[in-house]
Specification:
This protein is an alpha+beta fold. The protein has four helices and 13 strands. Strands 2, 3, 5, 6, 7, 8, 10, 11 and 13 form a nine-stranded antiparallel β-sheet that branches. A two-stranded parallel sheet has the order 1-12.
Amino acid sequence: MDKCFFIGGIFGAYSWAILKLVLPIIGVLGLLINLVMFIILIVKKKRSLKLFTNVMLNIALIFPILMTMNIIPYAYPNTITRAQPSITVSWPLAEKTVVGWGGDSVKDNLPHATWSSERWAYDLVMEPHNINSDSNEDYGIWDKEIHSPVSGIVIAVSDNEADITPGSENFISMEGNHVYIKIKETGTYLLLNHLKKDSVTVEVGDHVKQGDVIGRVGNSGSTSEPHLHIHHQRQDPTKVIHPVLAEGLPLFFKDINGDLMPKKDTIIEPKNIPLK
């Protein structure tokens, strides 16, 4: 299954979402109906091969829920070479950083790689992290400046969502405060999420240069602790029906130690952050 249903692009993204979210619901509803019919047949002391076949079909439709719940982790079936264009950008933080999630495999990038839009997304943290503290200030990446990884035009900004308590579910939106940038050379989009409330320093329509400070790391949106989420996609994020219904594209980093697509637990020491 190199491409979802052998369909690429946005059609693959929709097909994957249908497979993981819609078909299991249809399967559950069908199974409940068939179980009621099965009970009726038992009362009437009858048998039905067709009903048995329908039950098996419904169980098959439910099966993808195991991928949705990551019980069976399976990456969205796309490859770095086929998903183009890719971009190579500068590191968005000026200090030593830990890659919480990142890379091409499910092992290194479980919460992202299983969805089309975030196929090559990253979650970035700093020491200390994963400390189970309920105070945002205890996390190393909290309030750190975010530098624009690319030059481009700001197409969307959010700055007014409250930062939530680490580990809570009291978020307003999945993305939280954010800055989205359109890259002129490729016509694609770079998304940076979970920014600190009232920290964004750019506005829609601004032309940002690589290295410009655009905000600070927060803990807004659907997030377990303060971190910076970043990913690259083809579709305009302000026009997609839902965040997962987009085609994620490869994202590489320059001027860092190690691989250009760093994996989970990699410690990154940026070599050069161009400042204003």
